[in-house]
Amino acid sequence: QVQLVESGGALVKPGGSLRLSCAASGFIFRDYYMSWIRQAPGKGPEWISYIDESSSTVYYAESVKGRFTISRDNANNTLYLQMDSLRVDDTAVYYCAREIVVVAAWGQGTLVTVSS
Amino acid sequence: SYVLTQPPSVSVAPGQTARLTCGGNNIGRKSVHWYQQKPGQAPVLVIYDDRDRPSGIPERFSGSNSGNTATLTISRVEAGDEADYYCQVWLSGSDHPGVFGTGTKVSVL
Fold this sequence. Notes:
The structure holds two protein chains of two kinds. By secondary structure, chain A is mostly beta strands. In chain A, strands 2, 4, 5, 6, 9, 10 and 11 form a seven-stranded mixed β-sheet that branches. Chain A is built from no helices and eleven strands. In chain A, a hairpin with a 6-residue loop joins strand 9 and strand 10. By secondary structure, chain B is mainly β. In chain B, strand 3 and strand 4 form a beta hairpin. At the A-B interface, strand 5 of A face strand 7 and strand 8 of B.
């Protein structure tokens, strides 16, 4: 079955950096768009980034553009999110998700807390 | 940017029907997807493309979409249906393509 397992979440100070990973299994990773969706405490989900199968097309929400970088390693079935210049309002659970348009497969999420 | 508005909360007795709305400008022209999220868990897709159910989702969950309102209907509500529900659309070509609604908390009395 489809499995998405995120890792890398932590407590970090404002201005710091973090790299999230998402290990995918149970499907042909290289055939799918992949997304990162985050959810701040008590808020609804926010679609922040996606990447196409070959890494030729990427999208960033305005809230993270210029600070976050999405990438993927198709040989190792892994999705990444490099997060730089972190701000307090980046505090959220970060979900790895398969596909764009509609998400039928989500990871369990990893918590990123930005606080001094 | 496109806004999807949902009532913050809906309360329903077991066995009754819950109707959750999702308002957006001409949302009837878009495909709407619905997610259920229980505390501490990732969202689960319960309806896609307005009215289709993924495998494993009970027939009690149904959807409709017309005009400026999409609706998720939960029939014969059970205690296990207590959760947050989010609607979502995809706006191809937009600067902000993936839009989620504000969410509705369903409480089973």
